[in-house]
Predict the structure of FBD domain, leucine-rich repeat domain superfamily.
Amino acid sequence: MSSKDVDRLSRLPEPIVSHILSLMPTKFAVRTTILAKRFQYSWMFVTNLDFDDDDSTNATDIFSRLALLLTESRHNSDSFIKFVDRVLESCRSPQVNLVRIHVYYKVRESCPSKWIDKAVRLNVRELDLRLSLSHLPLSLRTCKTLTKLVFHRTGRDRQASKCWECPERVSLPCLKTLDIDVCDDPHENAFRVISGCPLLENLSLEVYRVWGEYERQDDYIFNIPTLKRLKLMLGYDLVNHKVVLNVPKLEYFVLCGELFSLFVMEDVSSLAEVTLSIERLDSDHHLWDELFKGLSGVKSLSAQNENSRGCFGFISPLPVFQNMKHLELNRFWNPEFIPLVLERSPQLTCLCVKHVHDYSKHEESDWIEPKVVPACMLTNLTTIKFKCVGQKCVIHLMEYMLRNAEVLKTVTITWRNLCFQEETRLAAKLLKVPRASHDCEVSFIGGGSLSNASY
């Protein structure tokens, strides 16, 4: 810095100033009017507009024309509404990249529709909405510049029985990412939007049911030839449905919630990575069997069992995961299940096991060593990661892996909820086990001095 006072901020080129202001919540961008005269109108040329009613909590007087709008508490919806109205009306950017509007209390129905209309007139590319809205305005349904749409209703609205509605006409020719939630009947709303997105690549759909509403028997058919990423969140006993996936370009699939629907994989030939997080399961376990069969071509699988009653049962044998190289099992999986998966995964190179079934009822007699060593343990399995407590059945599983995995290079064991003495005892026991692989390094991570110890 020179000895003279230099206002370097004011000397920045206008595009740089606009870019900086676009990286902050809009209320802060507007506050820059107090810095210098040259900043009086800079905020009008931002390319991102970020409105959040929580952001107005500490608002202060910054500009004579906006003073009233920024000094009210966030619980006064009128001040927030007026602020959003004024900024959207004053924005002079030829194209806005992002408009984010999060409102956590109910506002007049006309307000969100008016905001969306103004955003569309600004040639918005990404629209992120969390607010109360009963229907999608025509301007949104036919926006030619929109590439990403996120629309979730607020918590209070989600508890209401009436879902947002989408009239017949939908044409979003540039939309590639869609993230929405819908109540009870996706056919009437969500699938109507999806059908109007010819370039859709990323879809996140949350379907939840309001108690007491009717049940429909229609299938959920995802026939989207351009889709690459799909996330489905199913909840509240959505039963009697069949989910059909005809998505030949799908690479990443995430399924969360409750498994009460039959999944039919018509074409998932490009599927590479799958994440499952199942909270509840229909008593008929064939749904789980069918889901695994449909995912048999996956390369990476992460399965989280949130059902604390124990591991899911299987009516038929597991399918052969011919291409799977990475497997992660989390939460309440029985140790006996792991060799079964390994047996059906001949190309597996990395196994991660977290928080396996930790019921105290598991005793030494519960572990039955497989008669045949899985092929992957003899030729491909190089990395194993365990994160668990020290039940006898789990320790026996670890010993089995060390004795039989011939190409292992690294084994990482993270102790959980154990005292230092118990960590030391179990580590010493495992280190005495003869290793089939002479290149195998065993590392222990725990709360005591065993942290990051390798042998």
Summary: Residues 77-90 form the longest helix (14 residues). The longest strand covers residues 273-281. The CA atoms of residues 32 and 39 lie 6 Å apart.
